[in-house]
Specification:
alpha/beta, 274 residues, 8-stranded mixed sheet, single chain, 12 helices, Rossmann fold
Length: 274
């Protein structure tokens, strides 16, 4: 019996596998992906088991993680129904965990119900820094998921970063800021590095310094609990260089661009679930 099976080992699934294998015995993690080179590499890195088929991975797993694209999730879920019915017939209740954006709990629950299975279902929206223990993994559950299930889930994901239960409404509207922000932050870091290179800093050092500065700023927000605006003001000395840089960003509609990036990414997430 495996604790958790991953169907899909792409960028996001792979990041979660890396984190979970640090929190529980890797031998309790089994993965399946058509890309056998990818699964072999993950197994080599973590010690997790690799299955030759999705059915074999799922049959003896307690948690079934659907780490596939929203466009194919329903088809994959339907394909797994016979083996999940077999598990139920053998007395094993399984828990479905989907990381696909835009697919609501009601839809994730519907296919099992159509096949006579009333299963606990979890929606999680993680992000790729889970690979190094700095992820944000927010999740929502249906009424079949118990408090004990949630505690166990959070323990399994404890080495992935912050794992927090929310309502499905919050999950939906926060999905873009949680899942997409790493990409936005990488762009910001790269742009800061470009500016430093323009000033004469070597590229490798420019990237390192920009990344560390952004990491430190994020840590200040989380650890002090102070509002980002207050922390920004504390750096801006009257007539100093920082306020000139802030004014330059404001003139370029930096805040509006960042806010719109989250807003329109969220709209796209909603479209993916239709």
């Amino acid at each position: 019996m495996k604790k958790i099976a991953f169907i899909g080992a792409g960028n996001m699934g792979g990041a979660l596998i890396m984190g979970i294998c640090k929190a529980i015995d890797p031998h309790q993690v089994v993965i399946y992906d058509p890309d056998t080179e990818k699964t072999a590499l993950l197994s080599q890195k973590t010690g997790c088991a690799v299955s030759e088929s999705a059915d074999a991975a799922v049959l003896n797993a307690e948690y079934v993680v659907l780490a596939v694209k929203p466009q194919v999730l329903r088809g994959v879920q339907q394909q797994l129904m016979p083996v999940m019915k077999q598990a139920a017939a053998e007395g094993r209740q399984q828990i479905i965990l989907s990381i696909a954006a835009g697919i609501p709990l009601a839809d994730l629950t519907a296919i099992p119900l159509e096949n006579g299975l009333d299963l606990p279902v979890i929606r999680m929206l993680p992000n790729t820094p889970s690979e190094i223990g700095e992820g944000l993994n927010i999740y929502a559950v249906n009424e079949k998921v118990t408090a004990e299930n949630c505690a166990e889930l959070e323990k399994m994901f404890s080495q992935c970063g912050l794992t927090e239960k929310v309502t499905e409404h919050i999950l939906d509207v926060a999905s873009a800021v949680s899942g997409c922000t790493p990409a936005f932050a990488y762009m910001f870091i790269d742009a800061l590095a470009d500016g430093a290179v323009r000033c004469g800093v070597p590229r490798d050092k420019a990237i390192k310094y920009a990344a560390q500065a952004v990491k430190g700023a994020a840590a200040m927000v989380l650890e002090t609990g102070r509002h980002p605006d207050a922390l920004k003001d504390a750096v801006c000395s009257p007539g100093g260089s920082t306020i000139v840089g802030v004014a330059t960003l404001e003139n370029a509609s930096f805040r509006a661009a960042a806010a719109n990036a989250v807003f329109y990414a969220n709209e796209k997430n909603m479209d993916l679930g239709k």
